[in-house]
Amino acid sequence: MGHPVLRTPAEAVADPTAPEIRGLVRDMIETLADADGAGLAAPQVHVPLRVVMFQVPGHRETGNGEPVPLTVLVNPEIVPLGEDQDEDWEACLSVPGLTGLVPRWTSIRYSGTTPYGERIEQMAEGFHARVVQHECDHLDGILYPARMTDMSMLMFREELRHYVASEDDEEETERESA
Ligand code: NI
């Protein structure tokens, strides 16, 4: 948090299928696996390009209950579906040790291009919609604390584990970073 590349809008990618983009994606997959995260955006590895990746494990609420396999999107776009927002806890590899309660659109439609040149268009709800919004915010230089409406709900993950976990199931405090 604070590095200029995390505070600056990223550039659109001219050719999503370029070899440099596949190289970047390989690096990002490694970083995501090392961190055991749910998602990652290129600015988090200090590359100012509009590339994100995310995955949703089977135990997350995605609207249809299906896990989402690792998805890479170049030049992604999001459209909210309706006015509804949900609040839930988020964590970020670029904001280590912290977690916060963040409002997000409940339902979205997103689109983008894969590094193989395929066009993806998808509807998403729940955690799936949340992780896509979190990653795409990175491309606009926005970290999740900037989306929070109640800063008293920005806390150390360790504290949340101790004091809030009892209100929720254990799972809630084990959120993957993104
Ligand atoms: Ni993040």
Folded structure, characterized:
The chain contains three helices and eight strands, in the order αβββββββαβα. It has helices spanning 19-35, 126-139, 157-163, and strands at 39-41, 51-56, 68-80, 85-90, 98-105, 107-113, 119-125, 154-156. The protein has a five-stranded antiparallel β-sheet, with helices on both faces. The protein has a three-stranded antiparallel β-sheet with strand order 4-5-8. The radius of gyration is 16 Å and the shape is globular. The protein starts with 18 loop residues before the first helix and ends in a 15-residue tail after the last helix. The structure holds nickel (II) ion. Residues 92-94, 134, 138, 178 line the site of nickel (II) ion.
